């Protein structure tokens, strides 16, 4: 992909990674991703905002060459993570006059991660500005979206916000701007769930912090740009501020069919009582889909057989993941089966200390579920429906 003009003198110069399928050796990328880098020409100075993943440094350098850029004054590093900072050393090699502009915390991280010499840095305080001549960059400190050093860059005269990961999405597309709203919403929600949700409280503060800025374009570091910023601002507002919805997320594993029978029965009982359910067989689930479901759910019910005294390892993994993602879930319960005993419930409960939840009475069946177990599942469904009603989760 060649450079693309956003405004006269403002260009997208990033790279699209159509084939990447895993991020951080953890997060599935069903739709690839992009590493968005932006070049801003002022009447006196030129700035590059973020770079690209080091695997795509040649694409960035080619884009800059195609624009005839022979001098860069500032490389703005909004974030130290390598998918944006990883090509900074190569850019500095090609443009030796350039200084790296970042928060004081980011400077330390870039020295640690990329061994960039200390003399290369200019650190900026919150709301500090740098003039490019006829254009002004304002730096807005926004810690914990999603590392402690993160900042946003606002191009005042063009009213463009460059928020790096914030408002991003892992989506490879030739659309410079969001054009398929459904696809963009899904990708942005997945991104929020996997990357941003654990920092919901600081995101609330950062949304407040930018609400008085006049923004025509949000240009994140992954995925298409937003030329209708209210689309993504409204979505984020809903994900971080709204109450959870009348939804149960039910991740489970079944080895010999007993837990699956209980899951099927419970799903029916919940639906009968007006509760929506999202059911995930963890042997085949894309964990990004599970993370997305956790954004809105009021209740999580984990289904597990007992294996080697505890929960199935795949279930333990899902519990640890949910604990790390810190969704706004309010209630948790556990259902499942065992052959001769065990500590699946105690062990699972111990894996979710971050979730400030009420634990609802678990239902464990010895062997294949029988009448008393189905009755207990009915009772659990009734309790969930009543709790959701009590808190007006709609
Ligand atoms: Fe896209 Fe936190 O890096």
What key phrases describe this protein's structure?
23 strands; Rossmann fold; binds MU-OXO-diiron; seven-stranded mixed beta sheet; 2 domains; 34% helix; Metallo-beta-lactamase, Chain A; alpha/beta; 394 residues; elongated
Report a brief summary of the structure.
The chain has helices at residues 57-66, 82-85, 88-94, 104-114, 181-196, 200-210, 230-241, 258-272, 287-296, 313-325, 344-349, 371-390, and strands at 4-7, 10-12, 15-17, 22-23, 27-28, 33-35, 38-41, 46-49, 74-76, 99-102, 121-123, 129-131, 136-141, 151-155, 160-164, 217-220, 245-252, 276-281, 297-307, 310-311, 331-338, 358-359, 363-366. The protein is an alpha/beta fold and 394 residues long.
Question: How would you describe this protein?
Answer:
By secondary structure, this protein is of the alpha/beta class. The protein folds into two domains: 238 residues, Metallo-beta-lactamase, Chain A; 144 residues, 3-Layer(aba) Sandwich (Rossmann fold). Strand 17, helix 8 and strand 18 form a beta-alpha-beta unit. The protein binds MU-OXO-diiron (FEO). The site of MU-OXO-diiron has 8 residues, from helix 2.
